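agent: user wants the structure for Glutamate--tRNA ligase from Pseudaestuariivita atlantica. delegating to structure tool.
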Amino acid sequence: MHDATHAPVVTRFAPSPTGYLHIGGARTALFNWLFARGRGGKFLLRIEDTDRARSTPEATQAILDGMAWLGLDHDGEAISQFARADRHAEVAHQLLEQGAAYKCFATPEEIAAFRDAARAEGRSTLFQSPWRDADPATHPDAPFVIRLRTPMDGTTVIRDAVQGDVTIRNDQLDDMILLRSDGTPVYMLAVVVDDHDMGVTHVIRGDDHLNNAARQMGIYTAMGWPLPVYAHIPLIHGPDGKKLSKRHGALGVEEYRDMGYPAAGMRNYLARLGWSHGDDEFFTDAQAMAWFDLDGIGKGAARFDFKKLGHLCGQHIAAADDAALLRELEAFARTTDHDLPTDQRKKWLADAMPFLKQRAKTFPELIEKAHFVLTDTPVVPDEKSGAALDNVSRGILTELTPQLRDASWTRDDLEAVLGTAAESHGLNFGKLAAPLRAALAGRSATPSVYDMMLVLGRDESVARIDHAARS
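agent: tool returned. relaying tokens verbatim.
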């Protein structure tokens, strides 16, 4: 567990603006957010926007929108990596001055020729620069890159909180370029300088970055900077066990938002994707923050499972506060062109929420269950429910209308009136419920007839039943 005497925890999420926040990125952001928030630390956001073609304001906004929907708030302003290029170059020159880096004048053609010769001779194709130990007096007046001087022998050990100790032989690493010949810094340098300057204590990211860690550690060591704690988390696989990609369907979190999954259910599901706390499946944000730790992250890839996501989302909808759920439902409706009412119907919707939210996995399912509130009056039954309105059932509804006008409109009284009506016609209640569903909701799958009548009230219920009896 975290020791309070250590420096406060600082984590970061550092996406490239690809135009949306994909599921793997969302989970990485969530893990960083949970780890920091559960320890009273800071969660920072850095946009790795050095690829100018892809880094548009719209692409950045899409990531911010995805994080906002998921409820992953970050501390302070989002940092632009591109805006810090001068600082990255400054560190490269500092490394050059202290002899930890050197100028390399090798041309792309020379490097290609070296590799071809090495391949032909069966040697390692890692480029060994002839300028590594050259006398500065021999330096030509020509463009150069700045390379990091990597140890030739020995090993680099990444102490990883998820993967354990990962050992890489230094002769497997070439002298990494820090600054290109046009003076622009490479991504690998930028990441280290930004993490150091932002005070990041824990680097929690996908394990596709594991090999980068060995190279990045070289920069920390050469600068005399303390290393962060590394935690490289396995990537997410699709249900078929292959790396999650377009062929598995939805990719960006906004697609899950538009399908109507609630954010709380999404957070719970993503937290469980590759991390566990005993056998706990359903939990709140507060529990996730209290429980989340790096040792609970599995070493193997997690599989994305829509069924499990739906199941958890259903539990979160059922457990939600009614007023908060109504606000979320309204936000969903605004982004997906569903029309939610404003007037009397909104009050009905609020009154119906306690039973609507049971057994709905998504907001569209909730809206479908609420059809009796949202439909226009007079109600037009769909084909399936309309089939229940035959002459016999219309006759029974006609008899019921005056009895319902006089009922006291409590559940007990309504059960008595409807029970008696069914009995006097020798029917079980289900046979009477079908035409009542058609009359009240125009659908055959609805909440309980009593729940609907109590929400709609006497006047509206009687008017709908009367209309169905005569249509």
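agent: one observation worth passing along. The domain at 1-76+234-319 is CATH 3.40.50.620 (Rossmann fold).
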